[in-house]
Amino acid sequence: MKFRTVFDIIGPVMIGPSSSHTAGAVRIGKVARTLFAETPQSAGIYFYGSFAKTYRGHGTDVAVIGGLLDYETNDERIRDAFFHAKQAQLDVRIHKEDTLTAHPNTVRIRLHSDEKQLELVGISIGGGKIEIIELNGFALRLSGNHPAILVVHQDRYGAIAAVSNVLAKHAVNIGHMEVSRKEKGEEALMVMEVDQNVDAPLLQELQTLPHILHVSKIHE
Amino acid sequence: MVMFKSVAALVEVAESTGKPISEVMITQEMDVTGLAREVIMERMRVNLETMEKAAQRGITEDVESVSGLTGGDGKKLMAYIAEGNAIGSEVTLGAVARAMATNEVNAAMGTICATPTAGSAGVVPGVLFGVEEKLRPTEEQKLAFLFTSGAFGFVIANNASISGAAGGCQAEVGSATGMAAAALVELAGGTPQQSAEAMAIALKNMLGLVCDPVAGLVEVPCVKRNAAGASLAITAADMALAGITSRIPCDEVIAAMYRIGQTMPETLRETGEGGLAATPTGRALEAKVFGTKTPTSP
């Protein structure tokens, strides 16, 4: 079921005018920012479908930027997000795309800083709810509504078992898990939605396992 | 664990346990999230307070959106009601005024609570605060109203859609209208089945409603569609309380709404390209708002 709780329906408390085009957009931006783990130096924001056609009227642009600045959906600074981005030395470019996408409310976000980059695709499915459907070229399905651990690893036997063993040791339960790889034996991505927030020692332990390249997390 | 996926199941659980629908929703919420009842109630209280503030702001302050297209109509209607010459019921019009007021605050990038979306945020609180003087609900009953609204919205969202881009305005204001009608029945002392009937009657009358916002803004015609939704919700609730039933069961109305949304042209699903948005005046307003010649439909 896409909608799990009553607060997906009654809520969120947010800055108007649109739950899908404003609040949902803030949330997608915030997931990107969380995974990037710092304010990026530059951001390319690509709007598709209804997002491309109506982003100005809905404040979808300032909403995504607000998310990239780590704001919540009810943060009044969203209105002036272009200004605040400049203050934070975040260079933003907005692009309108014509390509048809499976969902009408689709945005692709590319983040850069000196040392790293990140690219994700998010969709806003209504009422402020979102899904992340692509991350750095990997297909996935991530709601951002639960704490989640993302592990980039080499596609090798035992890698998944090793990660889940560490989670078991820390008594962390996995609610939903997906594994996606580009090619057999190449880079792969594990996404685990878990029932509670995870702390730094657990992530460090995961990072030291064989074949693990990068570990990041999203908190509820 | 999720206890209901359909309205029929929701009514069945309520009737077999002898609990109102709001209680079924709260119980499921505790089960699904593992949170204590107090935490869930507190969270809903924050939503209720946000709604109260937004509606109050809209009927007392001079709210105006950035585009200048909307603002002030909720306040205007309140003043008209106060003159005492209104033709329709003051309760219904009071609900209409607060529904518009809430959406005017939303259009002005003010703080609101989505119910189920921001574009349809006026209907549920509008109805609740509109009937407040007549039905005198306690805070607990007001929270129950929101949980019952949420229970019906939960079924729609999981079986159809609450997104205008996916299903048109019927999915937003239509859903909100059905939710408010069902919740009002419970608040007025009706049965769970009567709530389902009210929802079905309300949603049937919203089927096919397109999402055609002028200039792509959540303003024209959204504010006035929230007005119609609030008024229809009260009528549907009264009809259900009178014992009138829907020939088509609620779940089938929801399924019909979903299929209509699927076959609705993209120009009428929140793209700002068809319907009222494409009228000469709609286009002129769009050009005025953005100060540029805007591209025409593909």
TrEMBL record, chain A:
GO terms for molecular function: 4 iron, 4 sulfur cluster binding; L-serine ammonia-lyase activity; metal ion binding. Residues 148-220 form the ACT domain. Pathway: Carbohydrate biosynthesis; gluconeogenesis. Keywords: 4Fe-4S, Gluconeogenesis, Iron, Iron-sulfur, Lyase, Metal-binding. Its cofactor is [4Fe-4S] cluster. It catalyses: L-serine = pyruvate + NH4(+). InterPro entries: ACT-like_dom_sf, ACT_dom, ASB_dom_sf, Fe-S_L-Ser, Fe-S_L-Ser_bsu, Ser_deHydtase_bsu. GO terms for biological process: gluconeogenesis. Pfam families: ACT (PF01842), SDH_beta (PF03315). Belongs to the iron-sulfur dependent L-serine dehydratase family. This is L-serine deaminase.
TrEMBL record, chain B:
The keyword Metal-binding applies. Its cofactor is [4Fe-4S] cluster. The keyword Iron applies. Belongs to the iron-sulfur dependent L-serine dehydratase family. Its EC number is 4.3.1.17. Keywords: 4Fe-4S, Gluconeogenesis, Iron, Iron-sulfur, Lyase, Metal-binding. Residues 17-277 form the Serine dehydratase-like alpha subunit domain. Coiled coil: none annotated. One of its GO terms (molecular function) is metal ion binding. One of its GO terms (biological process) is gluconeogenesis. It catalyses: L-serine = pyruvate + NH4(+). This is L-serine dehydratase. Pathway: Carbohydrate biosynthesis; gluconeogenesis. It holds the Pfam family SDH_alpha.
